[in-house]
């Protein structure tokens, strides 16, 4: 963030810049609690724990306009993806397991449907998508999760009408040997972007069968696959239930993608801090269900 921030630049008129660590921590507070800029300012005034975390003094306290400009600075610099990469690198240095397998999945992130704005229209970059009989307007977060640690390593954000399988090739890392997915990714190995890439073509895809086609004899194996895939739900739970980011306030794909990537970076930190619980390794689960 520092190269983009104006702190310490010579010859700048006006009041001194708020220290960068204070601004960054205030921004992270707004993400974790899903707060608007004004609500984040109020939380700073009302909560002793927030003031302690941010390290605020009376002269350092940023107002909502300063927070808004800082958020735009991060969005325009495309720093959400870099933040996720930095967090994962730090966790790997501290012993977070990294496997050669990825679990892929996607979830909807709603966008405002109101037309009470300057353009008199909904967000032009958001679209409608359906899951079952429920329609969603907004975006879709496609994530790749490490099969052993359960930490998110890749996040791609698209409009809600983009199918899960269309973004699957973006979620597999170089060096991955296996990938797990639900039935929404049926046929992924035959897609042109996968079949035409030698590295992706070598990946062994474990895709769940549709429920209506599962025979009684296949149920133990499908349960084993499900036990592996369930790890992708933990980051979703943190971001959507604990952080409350089920809907974005911003308009535009770039802003939504930045927020979602930062949220998953913070979710990785929270998941890594929890008491370690041994998960059955993917190969052990598959052998148990065989």
Question: What portion of residues belong to β-strands?
Answer: 15-25%
Number of helices: 11
Number of strands: 6
**Major sheet description:** 6 strands, mixed
- The level of helicity is 40-55%
Distance between the termini: 49 Å
Averaged pLDDT: 86
Order of H and E elements: HHHHHEEEEEHHEHHHH
Show unreliable segments: none
- Which structural class best describes the helix and strand composition? alpha/beta
Radius of gyration: 21 Å
Task: Describe, in plain words, how this protein is organized in 3D.
The protein has helices spanning 20-32, 37-46, 48-54, 64-76, 79-93, 192-195, 198-201, 219-229, 233-242, 253-273, 282-289, and strands at 101-110, 127-131, 134-146, 152-159, 178-181, 204-207. The chain is of the alpha/beta class and 290 residues long. Strands 1, 2, 3, 4, 5 and 6 form a 6-stranded mixed β-sheet that branches. Helix 4 crosses helix 10, helix 8 packs antiparallel against helix 11 and helix 9 (233-242) packs across helix 10 (253-273). The longest helix is centred in the C-terminal third of the chain and has 21 residues, at 253-273. The N and C termini lie far apart (49 Å).
What does this entry show, briefly?
The chain has 290 residues and is of the alpha/beta class. The chain has helices at 20-32, 37-46, 48-54, 64-76, 79-93, 192-195, 198-201, 219-229, 233-242, 253-273, 282-289; strands spanning 101-110, 127-131, 134-146, 152-159, 178-181, 204-207. The longest helix is centred in the C-terminal third of the chain and has 21 residues, at 253-273.
Write the layout of secondary structure elements.
Blueprint: H1 20-32, H2 37-46, H3 48-54, H4 64-76, H5 79-93, E1 101-110, E2 127-131, E3 134-146, E4 152-159, E5 178-181, H6 192-195, H7 198-201, E6 204-207, H8 219-229, H9 233-242, H10 253-273, H11 282-289
Parallel strand pairs: 1-5, 5-6
Antiparallel strand pairs: 1-3, 2-3, 3-4
